[in-house]
Design goal:
- The structure is a homodimer.
- The longest helix of chain A is centred in the N-terminal third of the chain and has 19 residues, at about 130-145.
- The first copy, chain A, has about 450 residues and is of the alpha+beta class.
- Chain A contains 16 helices and 12 strands.
- Chain A has a 7-stranded mixed β-sheet with strand order 1-2-3-7-4-6-5, sandwiched between helices.
- In chain A, helix 3 runs parallel beside helix 8 (about 210-220) and helix 11 (about 325-340) crosses helix 15 (about 395-410).
- In chain A, a hairpin with a 4-residue loop joins strand 5 (about 90-95) and strand 6 (about 100-105).
- At the A-B interface, helix 2, strand 6, helix 4, helix 10 and helix 12 of A face helix 2, strand 6, helix 4, helix 10 and helix 12 of B.
Chain lengths: ~450, ~450
C-alpha cells in the first residue's frame, strides 16, 4: 500500500497538462488538468471486453459491467446512484469488444467522491443472486431494444460476418441463453482472470489534481497483485454477407472492407480515407448518392478499429427498390476514388480530422477517454500533436494506394436488413470495387 | 445598411462575456466570448417551425431547411459543403416545432467564413427545381428512417395525440403527399412570410468577436425590412391514446401529462419534477421499475416545452407481456411521488439540474443555443445565475403540489407501439395517476 509509485512523467499537450504515474503493481493513473474548466471527467478503463470471452462466456463482460452498479459491501445499488446524483454528477459505463469503462462526470470538488464510488464498485461488488436475477431481465430487454433498432443490430451482424467463429466477432450483449445462465461464481472468476492492475487505467481530465488521485489510487488499488491478464485471440478477417428480409420502410445497408488496427500506424490512413469517402457533406458518397441522386437520407463512411483489426464501413438507409442501385454506386465510388482522389479532397479530409480532434479536446470527457485509450493501444499517452502530425503526413498518393489496396483485395462484408430482395450479389460488389462492372477500369 | 445598431448591452455570465446588439430592423446578434477555447459555434436561429404551417404546408419548414443547403446565387450545394469542410468545420441545421436553426462549428479563425455561408444560404437560396426533385427523395427516405425507429416515431404520435388537429401537433417532416408537392414558389412564399428580422437571432459563442459579427450582420441582414412574422396558434392540450400493434421485440411506451410552456416560470418546476421522477439512476421510476423489478432496460422521464405548452413524458421499452404491469407501475409511482416526494429527492434533483447546466455551459455550442433560445422565449438573454436561482427556489412542497395537480387532472396521453395487447385502458391509468387502483391513496 505504501510503495512509491514507479514512474511519473509529465508532458505538455494542447490546452492541458498530462501526468502519468504507474503504481508498483502496474496500475496506471493518467490525468490532464484543463484550465478554465470547473468540472471533471474520471473513470477506470479496463482492457477487457467481448473478445476476451469464450463462447460459453459470451456476454459476461457486459453483464458484469451492469452488476458493478448493483451493490458493494458498503453500498446498495440505490446508495451508488444517490451518492453521485446528490452532488449533481452522474456515473455510467460501457462495454466494447476490448475495453470496459466505468466513468463519471461531476464538478471538480466532487472528484474524490466519484473516485471512491468507482473504486468501490470495481473492488467490492457482491454479485448478490437476487440482484443478478433482476439484472437478467434488464439485459434481456436491452437485447430486445437492440433488435428493434435496425441501424444498431446490423453493426452486430457486420462484426459477426467479418470475423465469424471468433471472439472478436461475437455480440457484446451475448445470446439470451448465456444471459439466462450466468451466476455469482461466473462473475467472480471473470473478474479474477481479467481485472488485473496491468490492464487498468484510471484516467481523469478537467479540474483534477494528479497527486491526490495517485494517493487515492494507491490506497484503493495498490494492494492488487501484479499479474498479466490473458491476451485475446488475434482477429482474422473472413468476410461474407448477411441479408435479412424484414418488413421495414428502408433497407439498412452496410458495406465494409478490412483495414489495419490501432497498433498499425496505417489506421490513420484508413481514417483519412473514410473521411474523404463519406465523412461529411462534401464527401464523394454524400455528393454522388444523396445530393445528386436523392437515394438516401443517411449515408456515411467510418473507419473503426480494434488493436489488431479494423473495418472501413459505409452505412446507408434506402428504399427496397433503390437498394441494388445504391449498393452498386457505393462500390463504384470507392473504385473511382481509389483511382482519382484529388489533392484537394485529401486536404479537406485532413482539415476535418484535425479540427474535429481539436474541438473534441475541448471536452474533459474526450481527453480522459483519449488518454486512456492511447495508453492501452500504444503503452504511452500519445500527445495530440503527434496524431496531428501523422494526419498531416498522409499524402494523396498514399491515400489512393491504400484505398486501391483494400478495394481490389476481394475481401468484403455486405449486410442488409429490411426489404433486401434487390441486393446485389457479393461477387458483383467485389467486381465493381475492383473497378469492373462490365466497363472495367484497372 | 449603415444605420447604427439600436441597442448594445453587456452582462457578465458564468465563464463567458455576453453581448447583445439589436439592429434597426430588429435582427439581433448575441455573442458570448469564452476564454481558453480556440473554436467557436455560430448560427442563426429563426422563430419558425412546424407550428407555423397550415395543414397544406405541413413539412415545408423542414423541407426549406434542407433546401438552404442546395445552392445559392453564388454557391452550389457542393461549394457550401466544400468551403466549410475545407477548414475542418461543419455546418448543419435542425427544424423543430417552433425554431429552425442553421449553425456551424469551426476553429475561431474561420468564424467569418462560417458567417458568410450561413448568411448566404439564408438570404440567397435559389430553390432550383432540379434540386428540389432530388431533395424530395432524400426527405421521403428520412420519413422512412423515422418510421423504422420505434423510439423516434412514437414521439411524433405523442405530440399528435396530445394536440390533435393543431399545427403544434403535426409532424415536423410532414406527410409524404405534401413533400411530393412543394415547389419553388411555396418555399419563396414561406420565407417571405416567416423569415423576418424580428424573428432571427445570430448567436455565437467561444472564440468570437462581437463587434466584428455585428458589422457582418449589419452588412448581410441590415437591409431586411422590419416586419413582424405571423404568430402561431396557441396550443390546446386534448390528450388521448394511440396503440399501434407491430411485430417488434419490445413494446415502446409513452405516458405524458400536460405542463406549462417555457414562458411560464413553472416550467422549471416541471423540469425538477421530471428529474426527480425519472431523470437518473436514483430516480423513483428507475429504482422501482428497472432496479427492483428488471422490467425494462431504458426508462426515463423528461419535461419538454414549447413557448406556451409542455409535456412531462415517461418513456420505457418493455416486453409485450410486461407492458400492462409497467404502465400501471409508472402511473402508481407518479401518484405516490405526488403524495410523498422527500426533501432529499428534491435536493438531489436540484443538484442534478444545477450541475448538468454548469457542465453543459462548458461547450460553446450549448452557450450559443441557450442564448438564442432565451432571447426567443423571454425577449432577453437569461443569465445562467438566474436559472440556477429559479432551480434553487423550488421547494419540496411546491414540487409535490405541482405533480399532484397534473396527476389528478385526468388529462393524459398514452402511446404504445409493438406488442400492445397488454396495454391498460386509459381510464385505469387515469385512476391510478389520481391515487386509485383499488387500494386508493390521496
Amino acid at each position: 500500500m505504501d510503495e512509491a509509485p514507479l514512474v511519473t512523467m509529465a508532458s505538455p499537450q494542447i490546452g492541458g497538462q498530462v501526468e502519468l504515474t504507474e503504481l508498483a503493481n502496474g496500475f496506471r493513473i493518467v490525468t490532464e488538468r484543463m484550465e478554465g474548466i470547473a468540472s471533471a471527467s474520471i473513470g477506470v478503463w479496463v482492457g477487457v471486453g467481448a473478445r476476451h470471452e469464450t463462447v460459453e462466456e459470451n456476454g459476461i463482460a457486459h453483464f458484469l459491467e451492469h452488476m458493478a452498479f448493483k451493490g458493494t459491501e458498503r453500498r446498495s445499488a440505490l446508495d451508488i446512484a444517490e451518492e453521485i446524483e446528490r452532488v449533481g454528477g452522474w456515473i455510467n459505463a460501457y462495454t466494447s469488444r476490448e475495453i470496459t469503462a466505468y466513468y463519471a462526470r461531476m464538478l471538480g470538488e466532487d472528484v474524490p467522491l466519484a473516485f471512491d464510488i468507482i473504486a468501490d464498485i470495481l473492488r467490492h461488488s457482491v454479485f448478490d443472486p437476487h440482484e443478478i436475477e433482476i439484472e437478467r431481465g434488464v439485459i434481456l430487454q436491452e437485447i430486445g431494444q437492440t433488435r428493434d433498432t435496425p441501424d444498431d443490430i446490423i453493426f452486430d451482424w457486420l462484426q459477426e460476418t467479418a470475423f465469424p467463429d471468433q471472439p472478436v466477432g461475437r455480440p457484446i450483449l451475448g445470446p439470451p441463453e448465456n444471459v439466462r445462465r450466468f451466476g455469482p461464481g461466473d462473475f467472480r472468476a471473470f473478474v479474477a482472470r481479467h481485472y488485473r492492475p496491468c490492464s487498468m487505467v484510471l484516467s481523469a481530465a478537467g479540474a483534477v489534481d494528479h497527486d491526490a488521485l495517485v494517493r487515492l489510487a494507491e490506497a484503493a488499488f495498490g494492494d492488487m497483485e501484479r499479474a498479466a491478464a490473458p491476451r485475446a485471440e488475434p482477429a482474422r478477417f473472413a468476410g461474407g454477407e448477411r441479408l435479412e428480409e424484414k418488413a421495414l420502410e428502408q433497407a439498412h445497408y452496410l458495406l465494409a472492407l478490412p483495414v489495419p488496427g490501432y497498433r498499425d500506424p496505417e489506421y490513420i490512413t484508413a481514417q483519412l480515407v473514410a473521411t474523404a469517402l463519406g465523412g461529411g457533406m462534401s464527401s464523394r458518397l454524400f455528393q454522388e448518392i444523396r445530393e445528386k441522386r436523392g437515394l438516401c437520407y443517411a449515408i456515411h463512411a467510418q473507419s473503426s478499429h480494434h488493436a489488431d483489426s479494423g473495418l472501413l464501413t459505409v452505412y446507408a438507409g434506402t428504399g427496397g427498390e433503390e437498394l441494388g442501385e445504391l449498393a452498386g454506386l457505393v462500390a463504384d465510388e470507392i473504385a473511382r476514388a481509389a483511382a482519382d482522389f484529388t489533392a484537394e479532397e485529401i486536404d479537406r479530409a485532413r482539415a476535418q480530422l484535425r479540427a474535429g480532434m481539436l474541438m473534441g479536446l475541448e471536452a474533459a470527457s474526450s481527453r480522459a477517454e483519449r488518454n486512456a485509450r492511447t495508453l492501452f493501444m500504444h503503452g504511452r499517452v500519445v500527445p495530440p500533436e503527434e496524431t496531428l502530425a501523422q494526419i498531416a503526413a498522409v499524402s494523396r498518393d498514399r491515400a489512393r494506394d491504400f484505398l486501391a489496396g483494400i478495394a481490389k483485395r476481394g475481401a468484403l462484408v455486405q449486410v442488409a436488413y429490411g426489404p433486401v430482395a434487390g441486393a446485389l450479389p457479393r461477387e458483383e460488389i467485389a467486381a465493381r470495387l475492383a473497378g469492373g462492372s462490365g466497363a472495367g477500369a484497372g
